[in-house]
């Protein structure tokens, strides 16, 4: 009976830790907790009505993902991703997402990219979206390719890098949604045609263009 109780308690702790992790992560990505914000485990535990043990496990996951850091006094601070780090993220994304696109092309089935292609073409025809809806579409495209790779670990690395890039506090850049959607279409078409090398190159080119747009925005600012 004692062993069964311990097992149940362990499952509860894991469930609470996962809930705390997802909740904190959503606050960070929604910028309700912004770069530089400091909090303590005790205060956070009170806010979300959780014990500190599963909360500590959730925070450790966020530390590992680079979204938060621990201070010398034990407090936790939301990280501000430096511009140099963002540029490095783009280099890594180019490699990982290029491979994801190639793997997606290997696995492509007839019609599997049709819905994403339709959304991309709609933006080309009418690129007058606000920023937030476009970023939602942009996330959907990149995560679609990541998942279509059929490599869960690769997809998770891509997700983590995209989340971390958001911490750079770059919330507005060039509004050239038509061009970005055209770059997405090139990737999707290569995937649909089952051409891995072309898919990899199209995604690599897209990430290069993202970097160029960012650099223009940075030096204009």
Task: Give your account of this protein's structure.
With 221 residues, the chain is mainly alpha-helical. It is 72% helix and 4% strand. It is built from nine helices and three strands. It has a three-stranded antiparallel sheet with strand order 1-3-2. Strand 2 and strand 3 form a beta hairpin. Helix 4 (83-107) runs antiparallel to helix 7. The longest helix has 28 residues, at 2-29.
How would you briefly describe this protein structure?
The chain has helices at residues 2-29, 41-48, 52-64, 83-107, 114-125, 131-148, 152-166, 177-192, 196-220, and strands at residues 38-39, 68-70, 76-78.
Strand order of the largest sheet: 1-3-2
Radius of gyration: 20 Å
- Helix fraction? over 70%
Apparent shape: globular
Which structural traits does this protein have?
single chain, 221 residues, mainly alpha, three-stranded antiparallel beta sheet, 9 helices, globular
SSE inventory with pairings:
Layout: H1 2-29, E1 38-39, H2 41-48, H3 52-64, E2 68-70, E3 76-78, H4 83-107, H5 114-125, H6 131-148, H7 152-166, H8 177-192, H9 196-220
Antiparallel strand pairs: 1-3, 2-3
Helix pairs in contact: 1-3, 4-6, 4-7, 4-8, 4-9, 5-8, 6-7, 6-8, 8-9
């Amino acid at each position: 009976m004692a062993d069964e109780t311990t097992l149940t308690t362990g499952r509860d702790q894991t469930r609470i830790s996962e809930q705390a992790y997802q909740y904190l992560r959503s606050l960070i990505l929604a910028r309700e907790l912004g770069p530089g914000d400091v909090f303590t485990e005790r205060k956070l535990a009170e806010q979300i009505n959780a014990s500190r043990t599963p909360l500590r496990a959730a925070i450790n996951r966020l530390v590992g993902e680079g979204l938060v850091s621990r201070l010398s006094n034990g407090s936790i601070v939301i990280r501000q991703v430096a511009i140099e780090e963002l540029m490095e993220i783009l280099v890594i994304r180019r490699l990982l997402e290029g491979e994801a696109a190639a793997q997606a092309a290997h696995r492509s089935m007839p019609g599997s990219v049709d819905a994403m292609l339709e959304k991309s073409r709609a933006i080309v025809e009418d690129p007058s979206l606000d920023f937030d809806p476009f970023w939602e579409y942009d996330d959907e495209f990149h995560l679609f390719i990541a998942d279509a790779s059929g490599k869960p670990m690769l997809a998770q690395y891509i997700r983590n890098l995209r989340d971390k890039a958001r911490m750079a506090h770059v919330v507005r850049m060039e509004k050239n949604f038509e061009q970005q959607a055209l770059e997405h279409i090139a990737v999707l078409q290569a995937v649909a045609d089952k051409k891995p090398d072309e898919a990899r190159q199209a995604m690599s080119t897209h990430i290069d263009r993202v970097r160029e747009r960012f650099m223009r925005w940075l030096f204009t600012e």
